[in-house]
Design brief:
By secondary structure, the protein is an alpha+beta fold. The chain has one domain. Helix content is 19%, strand content 29%. A seven-stranded antiparallel β-sheet has the order 1-7-6-5-4-3-2, with helices on one face. The chain starts with a strand and ends with a strand. The N terminus is likely disordered.
C-alpha cells in the first residue's frame, strides 16, 4: 500500500534548470568528484539557503557507500548521507536515513538530483538500507515500511509517501 501526501513521482524526472552537465573530473574518485563539481556548479550568490544545502550534501555524502541502479535506460546514483540534520523537513524527534539521488543519462552526465529522507517503521533498523529507488519510481513498491520524502536541492518538499509493503 502506498499513500501519497503531495505531488507526483514524475517531478523527479524533470531536469534541473542548469542545462550544463559536468563531465570534467578532479583527482581522486571520478564519480564523487563529478558529483561534487556538479553540485558546486549549481551554487549561486542569489540562493544562499540552497548553497547551504548543497554544501551540506557535499560534506555529508558517504561516497564510499554509493551505489547505482538502472532506471529506464539511464542510471540512478544513490549516495547515502551522514545522519546530520540539515533540512527543514527533518522531523524534530528523529533523523531519517538520508540519500542524495542523482539521475544520469546514458553518457554519464548528471541530469537531476534530489534528496530523499526515509523514516523506517522498524525501530530496530539501525543501519542505512540500500533502498531500491528505481523499483520505487517504476512500481511504487518498497521492501521496508516507512515514510519517504522527496526534496529539491533547494530544500523544497516535492512530496511525501507513506510506504507499506502489504
Amino acid at each position: 500500500m502506498l499513500g501519497c501526501l503531495s505531488c507526483k513521482k514524475s517531478d523527479f524526472l524533470e531536469e534541473n534548470v542548469n542545462d550544463e552537465c559536468i563531465t570534467g573530473l578532479k583527482s581522486g574518485n571520478p564519480d564523487s568528484n563529478k558529483i561534487i563539481e556538479w553540485l558546486e556548479s549549481l551554487q549561486s550568490p542569489s540562493t544562499l539557503y540552497t548553497n547551504e544545502i548543497l554544501e551540506a550534501i557535499i560534506s555529508n555524502a558517504e561516497f564510499d557507500k554509493m551505489y547505482s541502479e538502472d532506471y529506464e535506460g539511464e542510471k540512478l546514483k544513490i549516495v547515502p548521507l551522514r545522519p546530520v540534520k540539515f533540512s527543514q523537513h527533518v522531523k524534530e524527534d528523529s533523523i531519517p536515513f538520508q540519500y542524495f539521488v542523482l539521475l544520469e543519462d546514458t553518457l554519464g552526465r548528471i541530469k537531476k538530483g534530489n534528496i530523499a529522507l526515509f523514516y523506517s517503521d522498524n525501530l530496530n533498523f539501525n543501519s542505512q538500507p540500500e533502498i531500491s529507488f528505481a523499483r520505487f519510481l517504476k512500481t511504487s513498491t518498497v521492501v521496508e515500511d516507512g515514510r519517504i520524502a522527496w526534496l529539491t536541492l533547494g530544500d523544497v518538499k516535492l512530496y511525501e509517501y507513506i510506504l507499506k509493503t502489504k
